[in-house]
Amino acid sequence: MATRQTPGTRAKDSDRTEICQALDSALAEGQLSMEEHRQRVSAATHAATLGELWPLVDDLQATNPQAFTTQPTKLPRGPIVVAAVTGGVIVICAAITWALMSSGGSTPDTPDASPSAEAPAPHVLADQPPTTVEEAAPAPEDPPPVVLAPPPNLHSAEGLARVIDEMRKRFGDTTGYELAVMPDEAILARPDPTDDRSKLIYPYENGWGDPSTRTRSDTDDVTDLAAFDVPAAAAALAAAPETLRIAAADVSETFIDIDHVAEPPGPGALELLVKVTTKSGTDGFIYLDGASNIKRVEFPG
């Protein structure tokens, strides 16, 4: 008779019962699913050696069966005795399983299937849905509305300064033949670098647009169109209807024209011409020098 147990040692009925009890405990503790429990119990009841029993419980917590030290007893090998032993083990394991299920342990129903027809079920934790919940990404906030400030009146000091600044940004200087400024738009005449007989006309409305071409006049002289007193010119524009004795309610249109005027025998100088048109269609003119001093006035009509 063998004195020590090895994987090849024949299993006893009590060995199979001990393994089934360990599997029942693992099922109740949630270490095994119903399908895993069923497969392992079936394998335990059919195990012939200790080497077939031990792997069934070696991955379970708090279930660390020691080597079976009880010496195996010889059992009659007749078919009736073997059948009785096997049947007794099956009845014991089934009774323990039924008792656990009936005592309130809730386990999901699983369809019966033979071990040979199904692959081993995954670990019980693999069947559980993840417990972490991803937070929904916050909806992007709507950008604050962009409030565009209305363009300034170009006849104000701010407006005139803006036109001159935009000239400098666009062309790199403030030179040209002539600059006419209305309350909401402007027109600039500059030399045509490709033809001395023509000039380029640039429109301005919140920025300089593309130019058109016109024939250059003999009186067109290049000058610094920004060489005037901007605040004084704006003040003269504001006072122009009163200077020309035109009621404010009768004003239809106003503009200021800035260019170089030749005055014999000298070379000439920058001149600012303010024109006010009445609703009846008559025009009044104010001629200013670069410092916005009045040179002469022409009343309407």
How would you write the strand order of the largest sheet? 5-4-3-2-7-8-9-10
Pattern of helices and strands:
HHHHHEEEEEEHEEEE
Quickly give the structural class. alpha+beta
Low-confidence stretches: 63-89, 104-119, 123-128
Cα-to-Cα separation, first versus last residue: 144 Å
- Strand runs, count: 10
**What portion of residues belong to β-strands?**
15-25%
Helix content: 25-40%
Number of helices: 6
Radius of gyration equals 53 Å
Q: What is the makeup of the main sheet?
A: 8 strands, antiparallel
Shape: rod-shaped
- Mean pLDDT across the residues is 79
Notes on the protein architecture:
- Helix 1 packs antiparallel against helix 2 and helix 1 (13-28) packs parallel to helix 4 (79-102).
- The longest helix has 24 residues, at 79-102.
- The chain has helices spanning 13-28, 34-45, 50-53, 79-102, 157-171, 230-243, and strands spanning 175-176, 178-181, 186-191, 198-204, 212-215, 223-224, 251-261, 269-278, 283-288, 294-298.
- The radius of gyration is 53 Å and the shape is rod-shaped.
- Strand 8 (269-278) and strand 9 (283-288) form a beta hairpin.
- The chain is built from six helices and ten strands.
- The chain is of the alpha+beta class.
Key structural traits:
single chain; 8-stranded antiparallel beta sheet; 6 helices; alpha+beta; about 300 residues
Summarize the model shown.
With 301 residues, this protein is of the alpha+beta class.
